[in-house]
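Hi V.,

Quick status before I head out on leave. The structure for the redesign project is tokenized and pasted below; the design run finished overnight.
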């Protein structure tokens, strides 16, 4: 539950991340997508502020900034989860011996997986409920495209969580060492 090594902070260092193949490819795509969303959101907010300053408000920029913010948050959450960069309070867990610590971590992953399944389900219902709603400044863009970020982000994090659970189980089976 700790934040891991400093190598995990460098997105270019895929060797520091557990997994291979599709898992790593998906992680790279998620990272670039989240970065793009943050850049677009920043540009849109700046454009809106400048336009307002010059007396020509562009309301659609705020709507699209909201859209990119939602996607950056939910995809970026999985980027952080993959790299063990989520906030955690592990003062007590760190004091446990290796065996119980591993079981607590595994239990935590299972609880997180259950939560993510519920989040994906309720997020899908929310996206469906928002299907008839659109942005004021961008009437052709359904609000569903914002709310669908919730279940998609939850499913991405669920995929990562299952990967972490498999790593924990594999580590216990192969000798009890910490997973990579």
């Amino acid at each position: 539950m700790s934040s891991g090594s400093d190598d995990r902070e460098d997105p270019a260092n895929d060797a520091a991340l557990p997994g291979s193949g599709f898992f790593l490819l998906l992680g790279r795509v998620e990272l670039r997508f989240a970065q793009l969303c943050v850049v677009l959101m920043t540009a849109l907010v700046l454009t809106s502020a400048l336009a307002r300053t010059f007396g020509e408000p562009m309301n659609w920029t705020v709507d699209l900034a909201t859209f990119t913010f939602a996607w950056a948050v939910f995809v970026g959450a999985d980027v952080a989860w993959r790299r063990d960069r989520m906030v955690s309070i592990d003062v007590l867990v760190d004091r446990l011996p290796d065996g119980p610590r591993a079981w607590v971590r595994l239990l935590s992953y299972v609880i997180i997986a259950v939560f993510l399944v519920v989040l994906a389900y309720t997020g899908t219902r929310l996206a469906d409920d928002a299907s008839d709603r659109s942005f004021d400044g961008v009437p052709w863009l359904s609000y569903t495209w914002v709310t669908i970020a919730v279940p998609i982000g939850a499913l991405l994090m669920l995929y990562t969580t299952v990967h972490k659970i498999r790593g924990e189980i594999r580590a216990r089976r192969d000798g009890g060492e910490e997973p990579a």
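Above is the designed sequence. The mean pLDDT is 88.

G. will cover questions while I'm gone.

Best,
W.
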